[in-house]
Amino acid sequence: MISDKKLETALKQYFGFSKFRSGQKEVIRNLLSRESTLAILPTGTGKSLCYQLVGKIYKKPVVIVSPLISLMQDQVEQLRFAGEKKVIALTSVLSFKRKEYAVSHLSQFDFIYLAPEMLNKKEVVENLFQLDLALFVVDEAHCISKWGPDFRPDYLGLGELRRELNFPTTLALTATATKRVEEDIIGNLFGTQKVKVIRHSVDRPNIFLAVEKVANQKEKNKKVIKLVERLKAPGLIYFSSKKKADEIAQMIRQKTKLNVSSYHAGRSAIDRYTVQQQFMLGKLDVICATSAFGMGVNKKNIRYVIHYHLPADLESYLQEIGRAGRDGQQSIAILLYQESDVGLQRRLIDMTLPEDEMIQYYMDNAQKLTGHAGEQGELLDYYRKQGLSSERVKEIFSRRRSDKIKNLNEILAYTNTHHCRRAYIKKYFGEKDNQIHDRSCCQLSGEELPLKELKMIKTEKENIKNFDDNSYQRVIRKLFNL
Amino acid sequence: MDELLCFFSKNQPRRPAVIRQVLSNKRTVSNLFWGLRYKILDWLAICPQLEREKFDNLIAAMVQNKLLAEINGQGLCLTELGARRRDNFAEIHYHMKSPYLFSRFKVQLWQDILRLLVQIVSEASYGNTHYYVVASSFQARDSIKKWYQDYHECELGQLLSEQLLLFLKNESADDATIFMQLFYGHEYVAKTAEQIAVNTGWSTRDIEVLWNDLSVKFADFLCEGTSIFKVLVIPLKKTGLLSKSATETYRLYASGMTVAKIKSVRGLKESTVAEHLLEAAIFVPNFNFKRLISPLEYSIFSKLFKGNIDNWHYEKLQETEPKISFTKFRLYQIEQSKLEMVE
Ligand SMILES: [Zn+2]
């Protein structure tokens, strides 16, 4: 058994950190004793470091299945520039030539990131068999659960793949999972095999929880302005729509002196990079973002997260507010709620799940439609290939729909509760309800925001400095350290 | 929308289709010829993604706003209002200085490489190896990686700053300052075009145009020089403006081969060879017209055609000289247009 001291030396040597974060060492110890592990750790605990360090220590390849292509690219970059060159992300965006080369040379890479759809490719799987794996990692493992909000049918094949790979030591990672999702992950991935579960509370005591109800859009916008002007920066505002994110960023720019920018999939790659870097370097007070923002962003001092729209479920809400206060300082999460927001979420559910008619049409015309019916089609195709009847598929989707509506109702209940919000969340995630509510815990229904008591109001000095405007000669001297 | 006004004129109504096809690099000999006549060939391929529908919508909007007007069913000309708007636009917006360079380089790839270059040299100047590389294509990363392996032992910061300063000395200080704000480096983060626009009072589009203009000019500058950065640009330089097939035809022509011989060597139809030669006549400086047009034909042409070249018609030639081909007529038009431009 490797000593604590040796682990810390390895951490320092490979990553330059001198201390593990909560949960990391426990997970790594399990894996080094060849015990498969399900780690349910809140965002920001450095989950990826766990498998990276294990790969380093064993000096054998690690395969990571991850559904988030952008996140994968991000992690690949992070590793590359930590001096790690042998990393590849096999995704559908990779060019054919490069993919072909990578697949036939898999053993040359230390870290192999796989998008789930790549697991359907025979040549990929066959090459995986040849590898002597240090570790098999399933990132965002909750995607395997039909009860979870992000169910990915491709993930259902992972248990089978593990068997074919002769049960490599496996790490399943997720940030939030209810008890039911946890059972689903274990059942699907590990069957009856022994598996260690490490669960850290989703609760982040330094994030004050609040819901502000507004009567209409105009009031909501006014509230946003008031909040961003008063609250300590930097902060994040989440939106369900790209257009709204741009619109409100523009409004904040016009009505305040704050530095603000928007971030979403509609902006160019170069703009997204720029906005993210500016935010990291403290040049922006606030970002108006969609859920596309945040993966792999590890900024410690985010003071507030405001939700302009109602999130789809408590899981994603917790993930998103979890970006605040990673430095342990007082932070705040405010959900702005207007009754008609529910309708928006219901429409989003309808858009992602096909109606009975559409299902019937697809099943009747599957040959023609395969590959042309978008995201909904992929899902339908998966079930069709399982040999399910139209009736059965309709049943599955109608259950998915009611699951989603149930999730939506849960977050609605959170916004409307008259009791402690933190207690509500803990109960939802199946944790012990030992919450003792006080003034710094959450805002109960109808109460004012205690910003002053929380010391969340910014002082003059804390206004973020403006961009420095320099002549090009000075910029060049600074750029190249001359 | 107003940006397009500079391509229109008050008296050449048939411009719209030619403008769209030149900007989006749709090359037919006829488009290229009229592009030459309207003096807009410098802008060839500046906007390869321009869609017909989008363009048509813009034109419709300009007509609606009375900036363009229909002329006797022949096409669209600038109105007085349109001309004023055009001049006004030119006054308050960034004006592209070297649009012709756009078709000379693989622009997108170069811009990726340039951003990466500045970033890695900057980080290396501070001895930093932990950073997020700027968003860029694999191709760009590969080419920078190879280059870096060869040159990482040089004083990169010193050398790159010399090239940048030398290049920017010839630009206005304001433009140069904006240009340098678009780069990433060690603890130095770029601004988005939108942010610079807010600070300078220019439009976001102006900043994008400035970036396009100066980044490509810098490519050209490095290409002409002898610095260690030249090898990054050379592979991105397009050999010429001719299409691949036309280049081959022209190579044979320039080596002294006759049209009949080229036709049989290349296995092409005569009309195709003629098109290739017309394309070459438009793009190649010092194209030899005399080998294709006889002295007798020259004297016929010069008697028959005078004044505005736009108004010369092949039909008029056919009435008296039905044996002279359209290709020869068009070649003569091209030669005269080029002479006119030199004057
Ligand atoms: Zn409470």
From TrEMBL, chain A:
Gene3D superfamilies: P-loop containing nucleotide triphosphate hydrolases (3.40.50.300). Residues 28-195 form the Helicase ATP-binding domain. GO terms for biological process: DNA recombination; DNA repair. One of its GO terms (molecular function) is hydrolase activity. The keyword Hydrolase applies. InterPro entries: DEAD/DEAH_box_helicase_dom, DNA/RNA_helicase_DEAH_CS, DNA_helicase_ATP-dep_RecQ, Helicase_ATP-bd, Helicase_C-like, P-loop_NTPase, RecQ_Zn-bd. This is ATP-dependent DNA helicase RecQ. It comes from Liquorilactobacillus uvarum DSM 19971. The lineage of its organism: Bacteria, Bacillati, Bacillota, Bacilli, Lactobacillales.
